[in-house]
């Protein structure tokens, strides 16, 4: 099953919102406390079979006079749910244009709308609704269980035992023989507890183990049912999943979360709707990547076999998870500070943000993003920004929600405009040695994206060399020689400077410059062009290593084009 639309009113920090996920896999991102978890809470409260206890704090502004209403419209329905014996009377239509209507026609997808309302009495009411019908159908917890919702958050391990209401309990065939054998096992528990001989329990454990391995949980032996006695005495809840003699409820946080998700997935016959809050919690980067990859792979396999794919709605603050999810899955949450109306924006051109996902995905978790034209500037600014906090009450740009992003050269214009359209404050920093195309300039102006560039027609390397005195030029050349070899650097420079031999160029700058009949400014401009053409500072690692030198150049001449340009960048990032 998949959610086609969710609308929320007066729930927690959300005054109103309407969202159509539009995909089987969605990765929700946004600023902290924007409402990502609240959105998952709203969906869970509406579709979970559990009884939800509401409090005053669950209402917007704690105002119980404005009732909570959450509508979740669900598609990819099973035949059972669409049958007249079940909910057929309340089936609605979802058009190809993603519009909901009460009376479906032949080309519409059959959908059901579940409505949760909570008024001042704090008593939740779950109903199936059609606006053209006078009376809705009240849904019980058993009815809601049919929608197959799974929620993974925190370290909830209740599904790792055969307790009342757990998925393992539902997975286990409840036959008279099973009950009798369990009763016998209870009686001899203290002397000889062995549940492996009960086929139904063993089958449930094996199904959970298979799913857990696929998601990346560490399985040291094999999953088996075992006895776990606690203060509450002996009951079905005392039978828990074990791995190599250790209760899974005692496993590490990451493995415990993945095992819990695996157990819940095992309990869903057809495509489950899975809500995952902060998938990275307790997981190493490789297991984050593995879990997301496996979930997406399962959906693709089901789609290829024309089986229900289900749906994953996932939140994250991890750049690893972002990169693995991909641009098509990204959904950016925005909320108006005054009205508290929430919107969820999809990336219309996923390929445009590809460079950010490949090189600096963490920038998408920021509020303000500086798009930088190339590797040289990205590396240098990554180091130079470390000098700024002492000028701003020891506050780094990251604390203000600002980030740097590689624009991948000419793609920077489209990237800046796209991010601006997704609600990010964006600015483009570029060299000025080539004029910007009029169409690109108009595109950024229309989007409201400012441009920062050098005042003269220079590239960054020239902007660095031009204000440098002889000592700083020598340090820059020594740095290039250390990275790329003295002879190679000297030969390249000599080939572009008239009257300079490679042998002389290997010597001190202050000596060989005295023997040249060339304007010092033109010489420095030529040196910068050589460094630029040869891409000696192009790698981010090298650019960052050179940032200390660049910072010294800036401090040596605060009126230079380099210094004033970088000051504009600093000012924008700290606005």
Describe, in short, the structure shown.
This protein has 575 residues and is α/β, with parallel strands linked by helices. It contains 22 helices and 21 strands. The strands form four sheets. Strands 1, 2, 4, 5, 6, 7, 8 and 9 form an eight-stranded antiparallel β-sheet that branches.
Task: Describe the overall structure.
This protein has 575 residues and is of the alpha/beta class. The protein folds into three domains: 2-148 and 284-330, Rossmann fold (3-Layer(aba) Sandwich); 158-267, no CATH class; 349-575, no CATH class. The protein contains 22 helices and 21 strands. Strands 1, 2, 4, 5, 6, 7, 8 and 9 form an eight-stranded antiparallel sheet that branches. Strands 10-14-15-3-16-17 form a six-stranded mixed sheet, sandwiched between helices. The chain has a four-stranded parallel sheet with strand order 19-18-20-21, sandwiched between helices. The two termini are 45 Å apart. Residues 231-236 have low confidence and may be disordered.
């Amino acid at each position: 099953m998949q959610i086609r639309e969710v609308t929320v009113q007066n729930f927690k920090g959300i005054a109103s919102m309407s969202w159509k996920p539009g995909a089987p896999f969605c990765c929700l991102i946004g600023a902290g406390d924007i409402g990502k978890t609240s959105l998952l809470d709203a969906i869970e409260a509406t579709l979970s079979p559990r009884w939800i206890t509401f409090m005053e704090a669950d209402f917007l502004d704690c105002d119980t006079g404005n009732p909570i209403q959450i509508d979740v419209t669900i598609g990819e329905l099973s035949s059972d749910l669409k049958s007249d014996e079940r909910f057929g009377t309340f089936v609605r239509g979802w058009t190809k244009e993603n519009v909901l209507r009460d009376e479906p026609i032949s080309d519409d997808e059959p959908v059901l709308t579940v409505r949760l309302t909570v008024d001042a009495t704090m008593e939740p009411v779950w109903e199936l609704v059609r606006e053209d019908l006078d009376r809705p159908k009240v849904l019980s917890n058993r009815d809601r269980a049919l929608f197959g919702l799974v929620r993974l958050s925190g370290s909830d391990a209740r599904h790792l035992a055969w307790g009342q209401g757990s998925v393992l309990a539902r997975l286990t065939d409840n036959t008279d023989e099973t009950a009798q054998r369990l009763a016998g096992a209870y009686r001899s528990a203290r002397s000889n507890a062995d549940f492996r001989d009960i086929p139904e329990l063993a089958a449930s454990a094996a199904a959970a183990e298979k799913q857990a391995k696929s998601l990346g949980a560490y399985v040291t032996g094999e999953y088996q049912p075992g006895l776990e006695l606690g203060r509450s005495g002996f009951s079905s809840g005392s039978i828990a999943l074990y791995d190599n003699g250790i209760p899974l409820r005692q496993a590490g946080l990451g493995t415990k979360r993945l095992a819990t998700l695996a157990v819940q997935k095992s309990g869903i016959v057809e495509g489950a709707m899975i809500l995952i809050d902060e998938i990275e919690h307790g997981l190493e980067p490789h297991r984050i990547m593995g879990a997301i990859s496996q979930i997406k792979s399962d959906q693709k396999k089901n789609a290829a076999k024309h089986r229900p794919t289900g749906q994953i709605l996932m939140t994250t603050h991890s750049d690893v998870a972002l990169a693995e999810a991909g641009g098509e899955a990204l959904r950016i949450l925005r909320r108006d500070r005054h009205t508290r109306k929430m919107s969820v924006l999809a990336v219309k051109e996923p390929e445009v943000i590809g460079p950010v996902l490949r090189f600096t995905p963490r920038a998408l978790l920021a509020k303000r993003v500086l798009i930088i034209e190339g590797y040289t500037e990205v590396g240098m600014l990554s180091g130079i920004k470390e000098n700024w906090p002492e000028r701003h009450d020891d506050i780094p740009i990251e604390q203000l929600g600002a980030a740097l992003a590689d624009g991948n050269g000419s793609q920077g214009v489209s990237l800046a405009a796209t991010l601006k359209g997704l609600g990010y404050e964006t600015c483009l920093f570029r060299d000025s040695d080539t004029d910007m195309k009029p169409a690109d300039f108009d595109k950024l102006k229309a989007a409201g994206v400012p441009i920062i560039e050098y005042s003269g027609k220079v590239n960054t390397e020239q902007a660095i060399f031009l204000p440098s005195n002889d000592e700083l030029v020598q340090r820059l050349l020594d740095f290039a020689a250390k990275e790329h070899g003295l002879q190679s650097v000297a030969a390249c420079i000599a080939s572009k400077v008239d009257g300079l031999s490679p042998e002389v160029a290997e010597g001190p700058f202050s000596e060989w410059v005295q023997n040249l009949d060339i304007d010092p400014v033109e010489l420095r401009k030529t040196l910068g062009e050589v460094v630029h053409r040869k891409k000696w500072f192009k790698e981010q690692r090298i650019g960052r290593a050179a940032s200390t030198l660049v910072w010294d150049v800036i401090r040596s001449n605060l009126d230079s084009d380099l210094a004033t340009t970088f000051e504009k960048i600093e000012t924008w990032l700290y606005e």
